[in-house]
Amino acid sequence: MSMISTQAVQVSDEPLSVVVARNIRAEAARRGYTQAQLADALGIARVGVTNRHGFHTKWTIDEIERAAALFDMPLMALLMRPELLHRRPSQLGADPSPAPTGRDAEVFTFRGGFGGQIGRGPQ
C-alpha cells in the first residue's frame, strides 16, 4: 500500500500557461533560436511567438508538443514549474516505495470510450 506524504510542497501561484511560456522562451534562448527561427520551426507566425513570449497568447498543447520535439526533450519538461523540475519524487510527497506487484498491480482499462464498460485488461 502506498502512502502519500502530507508534507506541503511550495509551488508558485503563477498560471501554468505562464510557466509554459517562460520554459519555451528559456529553452529557445538557451539553444540560440531567434523568435523568427522558432516561429518557422513551429509553423506559426513570428508575431505569434512574440505574443506567446509576452503572455498575450497562450501556447496550444500542439505547439508545446512541437516545441518539445524541436528541443528534443520530453513534453512534460516544458510543463514543469522550475521549482519542481529537479526534485525527486520523495521530495514531492510521493511514496518512494517500489511499485506494487502481483494482485495489487492488476491493470484496469477503460473499454469502449465514454459510455463503455470499465473492466480488467487482458487476462
Structure description:
This protein has helices spanning 16-30, 35-42, 46-53, 61-70, 75-79, 82-85, and strands at residues 108-110, 118-120. It contains six helices and two strands, in the order ααααααββ. It has a domain at 16-84: lambda repressor-like DNA-binding domains (434 Repressor (Amino-terminal Domain)). The relative contact order is 0.16. The chain is mainly α.
In short:
The chain has 123 residues and is mostly helical. The protein contains six helices and two strands, in the order ααααααββ.
Helices and strands, with pairings:
Elements: H1 16-30, H2 35-42, H3 46-53, H4 61-70, H5 75-79, H6 82-85, E1 108-110, E2 118-120
Antiparallel strand pairs: 1-2
State the CATH topology of the domain at 16-84. Answer: 434 Repressor (Amino-terminal Domain)
Instruction: Determine the strand fraction and express it as a percent band.
Output: under 5%
Mean of pLDDT = 75
Tally of DSSP helical segments? 6
Q: Briefly, what CATH class of the domain at 16-84? A: Mainly Alpha
The CATH architecture classification of the domain at 16-84 is Orthogonal Bundle
Q: Give helix % range.
A: 40-55%
The tally of beta strands, per DSSP, is 2
C-alpha Rg, in Å? 19 Å
**From the helix content, strand content and strand pairing, which structural class follows?**
mainly alpha
| SSE order | HHHHHHEE
Q: Report how far apart the termini are.
A: 23 Å
Largest sheet: 2 strands, antiparallel
Shape: globular
| CATH homolog superfamily of the domain at 16-84 | lambda repressor-like DNA-binding domains
In which order are the strands of the major sheet placed?
Answer: 1-2
